[in-house]
Amino acid sequence: MHEENKAAPNGCGKIRSGTQNEAALLALMEKTGYSMVQENGQRKFGGPPPGWEGPPPPRGCEVFVGKIPRDMYEDELVPVFERAGKIYEFRLMMEFSGKFIGVCVSLDNCRLFIGAIPKEKKKEEILNEMKKVTEGVVDVIVYPNATDKTKNRGFAFVEYESHRAAAMARRRLIPGTFQLWGHTIQVDWADPEKEVDEETMQRVKVLYVRNLMISTTEDTIKAEFNKFKPGIVERVKKLRDYAFVHFFHREDAVAAMSVMNGKCIDGASIEVTLAKPVNKESTWKQHFNGQISPGSENLLGFPNKEDGHQKSLGKPASLSVRLNGQHSPGPPEVERCTYPFFPGIKLTPISMYSLKSSHFSSAAMHLDYFCNKNNWAPPEYYLYSTTSQDGKILLVYKVLIPSIADGSQSYFMPDKLCTTVEGAKELAAQFTLLHLGKPKGF
Q1: CA–CA distance, 390 with 301 (Å, rounded to integer)
Q2: This prediction's pTM
Q3: What are phi and psi of 28, to 5 degrees?
Q4: Average confidence (pLDDT) over 337-360
């Protein structure tokens, strides 16, 4: 990184010149024996430290520190963090501000999301192409199209050997001008799967089954799993091309998983894993954004557990509902960022459909945007009401999408009622999006 050679006050009110900064850093290097180099917009201290033998520390050993005063450097920071233990590597960015620091575990993500991939490309083709244009590729994860198993879904996940390799690949591909097979691709970090503690997973007796044919019914799935051992399946809940199979006993679920994984149902080779419950902070935008890491489509795992690796979509009012008997966490309030509107600011007319999906906070807006991007007619909402036992008026919307081209279900109605029109519309839109299985970037 570049340091300006001018005086700057440090956190204690002292003034230190650029020459003094340089002398302090040289003294630190001489004292510790660590090297210091500048690369990729950051200054790296160590990595590895002197005398280090063996591989680098494993994933999970790095922390991110924010809000460091901009006039503090390695000579002051390294002694502070050495109190916690030996430093393998210290990387410093120069754009920091604030008086108090925050420390959290660094997200050691090794996976990238690649969107806008031609749907006819196979896993081997995508893997070979990514190895040509980036380094450190370990594997690619490609999911078959819900309606045509010979095609992919238009996106893939690329696994790299390290976070650094993934970061360098993202830097190379992110500008938006990079093309694969003549297509400008979309690149982003894949949202990591939330780890579930072993004790919780030991209680799971629900299997997540993916890559099903849309035409496959819940009765067919139940019958196929009951072939392994009659009467072991409690119920099945299918959503588009994936399903959750609930068992009476965990040992039967584990045994069925090993037997049924890779089997064919209605001509489709299925993948079977244990469904993952997630914590209450998890929400459901990730599914809408297509950040669907392996096993992360577990949106409706099992009763009384919140499932799925999802991010908040936002909502205009509090909404926590149950879809098909399973709990679906209501997204938290959207943080509304406002900026001053000064006289003379130039405004440009814009269509909402030219924006990205991240600009929308409500499920209803996401659904309208999704339909437009798929060249479908706008969703039609039909409101119905009933009266509860205590006299309250309860509402539900049926959503009709008349121009779905693949002949699949074109209307959707959640099985829960709301007390407000806004809540009912949001619930209906959420329910519809979940069933449409919207991928990122569509």
Answers
A1: 32
A2: 0.45
A3: -65, -45
A4: 75
Q: Which two tokens stand for residue 340?
A: 């001053």
Amino acid (1-letter code) at residue 95: E
Amino acid identity at 427: L
Question: Which residue is associated with the tokens 């893939």?
Answer: 156
How far is 406 from 411, CA to CA, in rounded Å? 13
Which spans in 83-234 are helix H? Answer: 123-133, 163-173, 198-201, 218-228
Could you identify the residue written with the tokens 């120069």? 94
- For the record, the structure tokens of 317 come out as 């009012």
Largest CA distance in the chain: 79
Cβ atoms 424, 384 nearer than 8 A: no
DSSP letter for each residue of 325-385 = TEEEPPPPPPP-------TT-------GGGS-GGG--SHHHHHHHHHHHTTPPPPEEEEEE
Residue 294 to residue 397: CA distance in whole angstroms:
32
Quote the CA–CA distance of 48 and 90 in Å, as a whole number: 10
Q: What is the DSSP letter of 302?
A: S
Strand, helix or coil for residue 92: strand
CB 253 within 8 A of CB 205: yes
Percent of the chain with pLDDT over 90: 24
260 CB burial (10 A radius; 0-12, 13-18, 19+): buried
Is the pLDDT reported for residue 186 higher than 70? yes
Say yes or no to pLDDT of 163 above 50.
Answer: yes
What's 192's DSSP letter?
P
Spatial distance between the Cα atoms of 168 and 258, rounded to a whole number of angstroms: 37
Could you give the CA distance from residue 156 to residue 294 in angstroms, rounded to a whole number?
11
Cα(205)–Cα(275) distance, integer angstroms: 8
State how far the Cα of 282 lies from the Cα of 311, in Å rounded to an integer. Answer: 6
